[in-house]
Design a protein that fits this description.
5 strands, 4 helices, alpha+beta, about 30% helix, single chain, two-stranded antiparallel ribbon, 3-stranded antiparallel sheet
């Protein structure tokens, strides 16, 4: 098999996988047993080409809502149960100066398993 085709086959396999649905109709992107919930969150952002709002909620109740387009986080729309979200919420468009705060928010909503 051609090595260049492997990412294509992996993507096709991912598209064929049945989505897990949480009560209320939300799609589950990671569970407590997943090795890296943050990687799943980043994958969702990376796969979002057309503009939309992505809402993430952890099992402990923290939530983060992001406006995403072109595989980029444009802004933080809402945050609940997350410390230090004010600097990202107060801006209309995220800049490089908000990068560290955004990383902390994503890590807080998708912490690694204990």
């Amino acid at each position: 098999m051609n090595k260049a085709a492997l990412p294509i086959f992996a993507r096709l396999h991912a598209l064929q996988t049945v989505a897990r649905v949480a009560p209320g109709g939300s799609r589950v992107i990671a569970t407590l047993s997943d090795a890296s919930p943050l990687a799943a969150l980043l994958c969702e952002v990376n796969e979002t080409v057309l503009g939309r709002t992505l809402a993430f909620e952890s099992s402990v109740g923290a939530s983060l809502t992001l406006e995403v387009s072109g595989r980029r986080v444009l802004r933080v729309v809402a945050a609940s149960g997350l410390p230090d979200a004010d600097s990202c919420l107060a801006t209309q468009a995220l800049e490089d100066e908000h990068k560290d705060d955004l990383i902390k928010l994503m890590q807080a909503v998708a912490p690694p398993p204990a």
